[in-house]
Amino acid sequence: MSTNFVEPDGSYYRNTNFGKIDPDTGNKIPLLNDTEWYWRTRLLNATQEETVEIWDMLLNPKNYGLLDRDLTDYETTEIQRMLCKIDRVYLSQVVIGDDPESKWHLILTNKWLYERCREHERNPDGHLDLWPRGHFKSSIAVKLSIIQEHLINPTLTVCLIGYEKSFGEATIKFIRGVYEYNNTLKTLFPEIFYENPSKEARTGHWTSDQIYLKPNAENSFPSLTCCGIFKLNTGSHYDMIYYDDIVVRDNATKVLMARMKESITNSFSMLNKGEVIRRTAMVGTRYHKDDPYNWIIEKDIMRTRVYTATHNKKLDGNPVFLTKDEWEEIKKGDPYQVACDYMMNPITDATAIFDVKKLKKFDTVRPMDVFILVDPADSKKEKSDRTAMLVIGVDEYHNKYLLDGIADKLELDERWKTLKSLHKKWSDFCDYQGTTVNVYYEKFGMNSDISAMKVFMENDNYDFDIFPVSFGTLGKSTKEARIRRICGDVNRGKIYLPKYIIKDDICYTWEMVDSEDGIVFEFKKSNLFEGNSKYHESENSIERKVTKTMLPIVGTDYELRKYDLTIELIQEMLDFPYGKHDDLPDAFCRIYDVPDLVDLVGSSKYEVVNPEFEYWLYSIKIYNKRL
Predict the structure, then answer these.
(1) What are 428-468's pLDDT values in tens digits?
(2) Radius of gyration of the chain (CA)
(3) Which secondary-structure segment (H or E) carries 432?
(4) Three-class HEC string of 267-336
(5) Which CATH number fits domain 356-625: 1.10.150, 3.30.70, 3.20.14, 3.30.420?
């Protein structure tokens, strides 16, 4: 996505196109002059100790042999004004954080905070900053940043967007307090700040949701205002937009997050166009793998800076800011909250619902009853879920096997063609072994599809029963509770998935193993295809119906992306309930809603004495049938 935003390197401060008007010449000059830019560069590359030394050298040059006299009051004021504009750390220590009981001093004394402050100040634009809770994220990247921007460019108009408008109002309350009551700022910048804004500012120019600074009094838009992500100030235009915590835990749902992506896109229209700079900055915390932040990262809308509460991004790491005692106490809390707030990862081993390492593998299909489970989605729209159709085999011991299926966005006629194909394939298979195949359609989707399905059956002269499957006593809204029912069979080792998978057109076997990044796939090349590991879709043809070897389940979705259904299912189980998709586990769990499942799976139909002998007999049966 092209947004035409400023490059995030801070160089616009030196670009005359975005500068200020020189009162003497009437020409545009950079927001920061040569001297200011030089010292800004020096300070941004200085250590904590060097920073303090540079402050002292600038304000007390006589002590360093740079002048043979003390600075005049005017010179001292000019140096202080310069430092406020070019050094966010100075601003936090000397001006805003002059209260000894405040915690602003930590930005200078804590190495990690100091580095984050310098990093954000060096590249303030076009970045998404994901930092832990309580690590000065909003203080450094929003509050200090806005104040500094107003000192550099007093006519700058800024909109602050949060999940709700009240989020921005809390930040404005702090900044308004600084502008109104900080005597140091008012003394250094009398041309920007009112002495008594409640009396001097125009009516409506100094409120809980908007501020007009002196140089901006005649402007149509305030120096600082705010709105909620779902109630944008459409029609207004600003020089810069800050997004602060637009995602919160309570709104981490697919529906709200889809709306939020649209709102973020719409918010870009609030930025000034033409020769005026277009600037954005975003900070937040992750509560879902497919949240708007992930969308921003994938679409390369902003560059990303991600930090966790520990040095190695693991719970057992050393805290970068908190004390060890504080960190140990935090880790005792809700694992999901800790993973989101402090590790920037809503999906970790601690939050995983399914122990995917207990999933079993199979490479041979034995006689079993077959169930086709359908969980339909309505359309191919970007926001809609995918239609999931899974072919699940259930043996006499009620082990459950993934035999076939698809995960794709399908229109109604495509759903019929896919279902018909699966039914024919597995009906032929079951005919060979004397078992049954049954189709179960998610009830709420079936209500709208069943009439059309009957018409399709008549037109194609292909008829079979479709049974509705409901959610029992769980209700429609408890999707997570439905899917969690799979956990018992996973933990008991009763869920079997194909041993062979296809990745990048190569056949592999898979394992789930522990790594530094949590549980991940480990792939090993397979010689399943007669010593040629290259996979060809033609090999996944009619032979699949009758062969005892379980071939990989592959497909191509509506975006022409090739996928392996086994990998997709495991990944969705691994990410559940905070992943991008959960269509496949949701379809899989419908097996537990099949009425009288115990009676439908007929253990009396066949008796397992010797599996190898059974497979041999099965192969002979297939061979004779094919003759």
Answers:
(1) 888 877 788 999 998 775 667 878 888 999 999 999 998 88
(2) 32
(3) helix 412-433
(4) HHHHECCCCCCCEEEEEECCCCCCCHHHHHHHCCCCEEEECCCECCCCCCCCECCCCHHHHHHHCCCCHH
(5) 3.30.420
Going by the DSSP 8-state scheme, the letter that residue 142 receives in this structure is I
DSSP string, 475-541: -TT-HHHHHHTHHHHHHTT-EEEESEEEETTEEEEEEEEEETTEEEEEEEE--TTTT--B--GGGSS
Beta strands at 279-284 and 240-244: parallel, antiparallel or unpaired: parallel
Q: Name the residue with tokens 């545009």.
A: 28
* Predicted pLDDT of residue 354: 83
Parallel/antiparallel/unpaired status of strands 303-306 and 240-244: unpaired
Looking at this protein, which amino acid is placed at residue 26? G
Tally of CB atoms within 10 A around 253: 11
Are 585 and 573 in contact by the 8 Å Cβ rule? The answer is yes
Range(s) within the chain of domains with CATH label 3.30.420: 356-625
Confidence (pLDDT) at 10: 59
Q: How many CB atoms lie within 10 A of CB 484?
A: 17
Start-to-end Cα distance in the chain: 58
Amino acid residing at 513: V
pLDDT band at 574 (very low <50, low <70, confident <90, very high): confident
**DSSP letter assigned to residue 440:** E
What token pair was written down for 186?
Answer: 């008012």
Hey, what are 97's tokens? 């954080």
pTM of the model: 0.67
Closest by CA to 186, choosing from 108, 96, 86, is: 96
Tokens encoding 537: 């879709």
Within 10 Å of residue 553's Cβ, how many Cβ atoms?
A: 26
Three-class DSSP category at 463: coil
Structure letter (DSSP) for residue 144:
I
CA distance 9 to 121: 9
